[in-house]
């Protein structure tokens, strides 16, 4: 840090310098975003000042409330564009903290998320909160003067930088609180020094900013100070629905979400009655980068009588709907409402529950009327929505109707089967919904547990996501009066009377072999029994009935096996038949281990002692080749 009278020079923190370089060189094809970002910051600053006035009466008294305004101007001769607001401003410490020295949480994440595609990367700027720096896309010097509301006129600050690693700070005098940013455009950016061009950019990206964005009137005579408002400058959700079209809603979505794409769907509802509120909620068409973060950055924006209060994830919408964006404007909350107050507020509880119901209804309509769109939704947010099955007991049934699965009937691995579809297709006499949980969808699809179901044409839902076991246990194992049942657990008691009889007979016939295998596998298999689930595989592992699938799934993701694994053998398989005929085979122990461990492998689990397994397998193969040699079919 060097000192020149009152001016101090600081170095940008390394990540910020990297970001600035990127702004200057890589995002050029979307250069007009700088205006959207700076206007958006100005708008936030005005909202914050209005809010602070409600909680700090001293501020309200000290400063006459000016009507909020954002002014955009340009100077052809100087080659500058100016964006000024009468918002909250920043103190010296705040400038240092927010602009440039300390890496904000968003900066590092932003750099990691960059794709190299200019359009995608430009869309990320807003999401990560690095909008201020986008000034350097078009400017080679940025000068900002700012005065924090509540501080004296001589405590204002001038920040200046060429974006190349350093910036200077100077304490100055400024008559009014607020912020003015002057961009000294790079050479060749003269096309921006044009009223028509700037107005078009403002209308494209910032039309729905609720404060007026003011420019000097076009065609005004020199010296004449005529000005006009360029944007709509009214809160969209307060306007009558009849006067709004899809384009208005979509434009507004892009403004509040920092998303470049259109939303998949939206709802706009004014509710009057015990509580009075307006909802304008959107379902995005793609997941934000932080969908799985503990604390996502964005959520639903709460307004009280049009004043922006806070953006919240968790309180206004349940976590399983954390992808919803939009506005909730309440007439019943105090303006000084805080996050803590939100927690215990009856009005918020009421609004939240109504908002959830409306979002679920919107999704239901989408699923019914536009399955293609719903498939996009499900791909992006299905795993998140599934959390609702266990988290939102009251709406469990509505959420269950929205679930989509892959099943043995699906032509592809796309999840396109609803529980309704499943129940409608159930075979005569079938009264349970069958499912299989596996560590991955691929493991589920290839599982031997499905063999008999496939042969009989009985559909099985294939669950391969971590959240799935919560879904099936949280559903209270039931949908539309039909129990959900794992095909990899408990006794296989499906099949007609003749099949059951055959299974009982096989169990008797194989009793002695079962006893021997059980003795050999003591400590590994909890039981060994005859199976009626298998048609082509010799054996499979199932979980004991008493163990919930919750544990099963948990264990599948750990060591790989259920707590009480049961080895089931296929009495019709030639290998098993042979073992039954030769129970005194000295290699029975090896066969037992190989059977058990290959069943472990098809489950997608881990063999406990792979070297021993391979050793035994090789011994058996050697014995087999020796036997073939002895019978003269070998090449000796
Ligand atoms: N015109 C302004 N008035 C007051 N503070 C501002 C202004 N512009 C920027 N700031 C401060 O600088 C911070 C950084 O701004 P930047 O645009 O880089 O990210 P952000 O606004 O926090 O993120 P996001 O774009 O997601 O809202 C802001 O959070 C705000 O505190």
Topology diagram in text:
Layout lengths: L1 E3 L2 E5 L2 H13 L6 H23 L1 H6 L7 E6 L4 E6 L6 H7 L6 H9 L4 H11 L10 E9 L8 E6 L4 E7 L5 E8 L9 H12 L6 E4 L10 E3 L16 H12 L7 E7 L5 E7 L16 E5 L2 E6 L12 E6 L8 H6 L1 H24 L1 H21 L4 H7 L3 E2 L11 H7 L6 E6 L3 H5 L5 H6 L4 E3 L4 H7 L3 E2 L2 E5 L10 H13 L1 H10 L6 E4 L8 E5 L5 H9 L7 E5 L4 H8 L6 H15 L7 H21 L6
Explain the overall architecture.
This protein has 636 residues and is of the alpha+beta class. It has 4 domains: 2-233, Histidine kinase-like ATPase, C-terminal domain (Heat Shock Protein 90); 237-375, Ribosomal Protein S5, domain 2 (2-Layer Sandwich); 404-486, 3-Layer(aba) Sandwich (Rossmann fold), CATH 3.40.50; 505-631, Up-down Bundle (Four Helix Bundle (Hemerythrin (Met), subunit A)). It is built from 22 helices and 23 strands. The strands form 4 sheets. It has a 10-stranded mixed β-sheet with strand order 1-2-7-6-5-8-4-3-9-10. α10 (346-369) packs antiparallel against α11 (371-391). The protein is elongated. The chain starts with a strand and ends in a 6-residue tail after the last helix. The relative contact order is 0.06. Adenosine-5'-triphosphate is lined by residues 37, 41-42, 45, 85, 87-90, 98-99, 126, 129-132, 179. Molecular chaperone. Has ATPase activity. It holds the Pfam family HATPase_c_3. Residues 1-339 are annotated as: A. Keywords: ATP-binding, Chaperone, Cytoplasm, Nucleotide-binding, Stress response. Residues 555-636 are annotated as: C.
